Amino acid sequence: MKHFFTILALVGAVAIGAPAWADETPAGLSAASPAMTLAQAPTAAAEVAATASAVAAVEAAPQLSKADNGWIMVCAALVILMSLPGLALFYGGLVRTKNMLSVLMQVFVTFSLISVLWVVYGYSLAFTEGGSFFGVLDKVFLKGITADSLGATFSKGVFISELTFVIFQGAFAAITCCLIVGAFAERAKFAAILVFMIIWFTLSYAPMAHMVWYWAGPDAYIDAAAGEAAGKTAGFLFQKGALDFAGGTVVHINAAVAGLVGAFMIGKRIGYGRESMAPHSLTFTMIGASLLWFGWFGFNAGSALEASGGSALAMVNTWLATACATLSWMLAEWMLKGKPSMLGAASGAVAGLVAITPAAGFVGVMGAIAIGLLAGVVCLWGVNGLKHMLGADDSLDVFGVHGVGGILGAILTGVFASPSLGGSGVYDYVANAVGEYDMTAQVISQLWGVGTVIVWSGIVSVVAFKVVDLLIGLRVPEDEEREGLDITAHGESAYHY
């Protein structure tokens, strides 16, 4: 009770003294010096204005989007998973037992080689402002790129770390070169493959990436005049209006043409058409295809460069088109050959992944279904009918799947990107809205992309293979090929039984 009265007394004292405290002058100001107070007012106002300007400057400066940056870092890791071990296992299972390690080695080392070259000069050639076909060497060894450097996305004012963009695109470059080795597996010299990759990466992959994907970024398009000026600095095919969301031209057609040229120039495997060359482990092939499908979510959804609705659309389309292609390939094969095969299902999945790649973020769900269903059937023809027509020993059907699927997907992107068919259309960064869509004009732009990459990669590949053949030879001796490249080229065996 005593404590209760004490508390009441304290409350009363505070209440009674409050009016007096309210009349006291705050510390640092003198009620008797009004002239001093007025004199200080302009200074205080100036300080407030300066602070406001500083805050506005900070807010206006480009800021890293941590969420988007984190997502693209994850996607870069997923794309790396596609090569190691995804593609390596997919290819390894398709060759004969005696060549299993040679294919794993070719993929593993090619990936490593291109990763280094990408940092040394590849990124600079592909993603700096230069001409319409090549960038410049201002960023060799990533010169000038720091932890604070920012890269544009596809939204104004949204940025990710440029280092994140470097590794994401570097993973694309590496897997593109790895794809090529499947076309001439089981017979090419290991050293010849590496030298070819250096030449082809420099003269075909880097310029093609620049032609298709280099632009000044959305923030450069502040008005019509600025947009026109920025457009003139973009890559050749970007200026032509070709759409390639994640690499139908840059990755798949590019690699497939190089592989086909290699298959012709290196020649057929000994015993091709007479001896059994069946895959030695469809188990590995199925595991590899599954890892490719999983990693491809990073490949396609990550190409939105943001954790956005567009990224989600690309992910859904990648999931759905692949499933559709798996089913259509399997059903067509079932009708033609009487039995559905694991090899057919896995091949169909990859065909669907390839075909949806250029379209992933541009088409709606119905477009993805159509592209997937067509890809399964058309690529089945590519690895059977077209392959026999061409007469090349494309060991692991690189052109039949990646070339045919890439061409199909690139052209159909121009069709199903139309808003009238559920697509996203083409965004106008000056008007900040989706522009009018001309399907015919867009398909023509897509054909420009397809034609350019076929011709460019074809010429570079012929020259590169010829140079390598003159320097060190392309093919292993017949006795080494018969024994198998695991032992003759690497001194190892995949299996000991």
From TrEMBL:
Chief subcellular location: membrane
Start and end residues of each Ammonium transporter AmtB-like domain: 71-495
Entry GO MF terms: ammonium channel activity
Signal peptide: 1-22
Localization per record: Cell membrane
Transmembrane segments: 71-91, 103-123, 163-185, 192-216, 245-266, 278-299, 311-331, 343-362, 368-386, 398-417, 447-468
GO cellular component, one term: plasma membrane
Key words of the record: Ammonia transport, Cell membrane, Membrane, Signal, Transmembrane, Transmembrane helix, Transport
Source domain of life: Bacteria
SUPFAM superfamilies per record: Ammonium transporter
Membrane topology reported for the UniProt record: Multi-pass membrane protein
Family of the protein in this entry: Belongs to the ammonia transporter channel (TC 1.A.11.2) family.
Protein name listed in UniProt: Ammonium transporter
